[in-house]
């Protein structure tokens, strides 16, 4: 029998905040953690995508911890070589086809030299293409040996025709490299879409891989992506680190890109920037925060003052029935959100089915395939752990389980 989830929850919160502090300001004393907490720290480092970064800055004296970080750094570097080779091939094929693509987020940060190979893991490759060129981009991916896995409102996901995902803890060099194809850059916050595609598409696209139009456009995308994850309680420490490192390169003009064009003010940028500034206080200009405060709705602005990384990330063990409702900007939006939670639209049901079919951490989980009414009743009667972090916790704690045990069991307790 593994520890009660109330103990796991406390350990996740403690280790999450400690790792965030160490990544932002390396050199802290080695924590006085027990074996359970050290293993939970490995789960948190994996879930937040910061294991290889910690390898380069964290000098905590715990041998299993150090070996784990070094192994993760090696796997990420080897996998980066595969990703880089794949991007070069996509670039060549796109040039030959006269097709313009934009590599997004992690690939763009690497291209700018913000990260060295092995420092930042990339779960997949994100590519942006104009709607009119989507069919040509899909054909290019099919010729590369990819097949479509599923489609949702944000993107279409392609996976290699061969290869299986790695079922262990953390990054692995042989994990297949999926590709997410986007025609727009947008997030639902929580039900109304925010679209910044016009800022991200290149102004004069050239065949092959194109950079973002500016550092400010890249920052806009990172902030909107982080906002979407905060709204869904899925933020990662890596997102804040990306924002902080890029912020160091931004000029006043780059920050002004957030307000460029005819789009509505970037009210959604305040919560992720505030949280980034809490951990990286010297990275975010106070003038930018002050300007964003005027754009952000009162409720969200108030709540974001006290949000912690744990609270808005996968480190928050319990599911929240109405997570993200504070991002609603009107009573009407809040009402739509509540209706969708009580009676999900067909699109949401199909998306859940696709996730249950394609995501390793959801395989065999009755909760995911249960009728929605049953899930709602469960939310109202007892705490329900998140499947994503629970999968990683199980992998991290497996060595603590009795050797005869075939299946890990966690006790749910407040």
Strand and helix map with partners:
Elements: H1 5-24, H2 35-47, H3 51-57, H4 63-97, E1 100-103, H5 106-111, E2 124-128, H6 134-143, E3 146-151, E4 156-160, E5 178-182, E6 186-188, E7 193-195, H7 197-200, E8 208-209, H8 215-231, H9 237-247, H10 252-256, H11 270-279, H12 286-295, H13 298-304, H14 331-342, H15 346-358, H16 366-369, H17 372-381, H18 387-397
Parallel strand pairs: 1-8, 2-5
Antiparallel strand pairs: 1-2, 3-4, 4-5, 6-7
Short summary:
The protein is of the alpha/beta class and 414 residues long. The protein contains 18 helices and eight strands. A hairpin with a 4-residue loop joins strand 6 and strand 7 (193-195).
Notes on the protein architecture:
The protein has 414 residues and is of the alpha/beta class. Among the domains are: 1-48 and 386-407, no CATH class; 73-213, Beta Polymerase, domain 2. 50% of the residues lie in helices and 8% in strands. It has helices spanning 5-24, 35-47, 51-57, 63-97, 106-111, 134-143, 197-200, 215-231, 237-247, 252-256, 270-279, 286-295, 298-304, 331-342, 346-358, 366-369, 372-381, 387-397, and strands spanning 100-103, 124-128, 146-151, 156-160, 178-182, 186-188, 193-195, 208-209. The strands form two sheets. It has a six-stranded mixed β-sheet with strand order 3-4-5-2-1-8, sandwiched between helices. Strands 6-7 form a two-stranded antiparallel sheet. The longest helix has 35 residues, at 63-97. The radius of gyration is 21 Å and the shape is globular. InterPro entries: NTP_transf_5. Pfam families: NTP_transf_5. This is Nucleotidyltransferase.
């Amino acid at each position: 029998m593994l520890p009660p989830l109330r103990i796991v929850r406390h350990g996740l919160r403690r280790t999450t905040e400690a790792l965030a502090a160490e990544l932002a300001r390396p050199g802290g004393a080695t924590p006085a953690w027990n074996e359970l907490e050290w293993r939970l720290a490995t789960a948190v480092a994996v879930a937040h995508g910061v294991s290889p970064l910690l390898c380069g800055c964290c000098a905590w004296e715990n041998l299993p911890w150090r070996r784990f970080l070094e192994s993760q750094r090696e796997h990420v570097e080897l996998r980066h070589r595969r990703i880089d080779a794949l991007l070069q091939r996509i670039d060549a094929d796109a040039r030959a086809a006269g097709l313009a693509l934009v590599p997004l987020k992690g690939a763009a940060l690497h291209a700018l030299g913000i990260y060295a190979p092995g420092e930042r893991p990339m779960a997949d490759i994100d590519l942006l293409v104009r709607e009119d060129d989507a069919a040509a981009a899909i054909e290019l991916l099919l010729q590369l040996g990819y097949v479509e896995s599923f489609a949702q409102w944000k993107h279409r996901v392609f996976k290699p025709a061969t290869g299986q995902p790695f079922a262990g803890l953390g990054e692995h060099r042989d994990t297949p490299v999926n590709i997410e194809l986007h025609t727009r850059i947008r997030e639902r916050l929580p039900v109304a879409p925010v679209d910044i595609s016009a800022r991200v598409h290149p102004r004069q696209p050239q065949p092959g891989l194109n950079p973002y139009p500016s550092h400010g456009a890249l920052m806009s995308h990172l902030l909107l992506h982080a906002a979407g994850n905060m709204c869904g309680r899925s933020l990662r420490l890596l997102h804040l680190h990306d924002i902080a490192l890029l912020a160091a390169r931004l000029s006043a003009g780059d920050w002004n890109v957030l307000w460029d064009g005819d789009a509505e003010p970037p009210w959604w940028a305040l919560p992720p920037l505030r949280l980034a500034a809490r951990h990286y206080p010297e990275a975010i200009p106070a003038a930018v925060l002050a300007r964003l405060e005027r754009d952000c709705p009162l409720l969200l602005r108030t709540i974001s003052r006290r949000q912690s990384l744990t609270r808005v990330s996968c480190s928050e063990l319990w599911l929240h029935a109405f997570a993200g409702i504070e991002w609603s900007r009107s009573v009407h939006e809040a009402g739509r959100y509540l209706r969708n939670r009580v009676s999900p639209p067909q699109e949401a049901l199909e998306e859940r089915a696709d996730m249950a079919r394609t995501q390793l951490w959801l395989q065999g989980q009755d909760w995911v395939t249960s009728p929605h009414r049953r899930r709602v009743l469960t939310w109202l009667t007892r705490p329900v752990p998140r499947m994503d972090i629970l999968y990683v916790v199980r992998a991290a704690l497996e060595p603590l389980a009795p050797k005869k045990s075939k299946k890990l069991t966690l006790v749910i307790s407040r």
